[in-house]
Fold this sequence. Notes:
By secondary structure, the chain is an alpha+beta fold. It has four helices and five strands. It is about 30% helix and about 25% strand. Strands 2-1-3-4-5 form a five-stranded mixed β-sheet. Keywords: Hydrolase, Metal-binding, Zinc.
Amino acid sequence: xxxxxxxxxxxxxxxxxxxxxxxxxxxxxxxxxxxxxxxxxxxxxxxxxxxxxxxxxxxxxxxxxxxxxxxxxxxxxxxxxxxxxxxxxxxxxxxxxxxxxxxxxxxxxxxxxxxxxxxxxxxxxxxxxx
Length: 130
């Protein structure tokens, strides 16, 4: 798959989001170090803390698929600046990444920003610190 196909898959994931309360859909596509792909969307709940972020959903799918290493992660929202992972999701991504993992922030118009995890979450705490 090329980048255009990756953006399309991320947009498709975003279209499946269940967001009746915030109306803020998010879609994610993870590409692992083995080249496998996993998607996720946010799923809200009337009891707000019980919802799932799209990143968490995609990471869970990746783990269920037997993978443990994120090479790239596309995050899409309807915002013009693209999908910026929240603090909790930055830490979730960090658990399965290294400093060179690429975070690609997209809007429906395409890529808006691209950075490595070390830029998005500097001086991060990970499994190797335990």
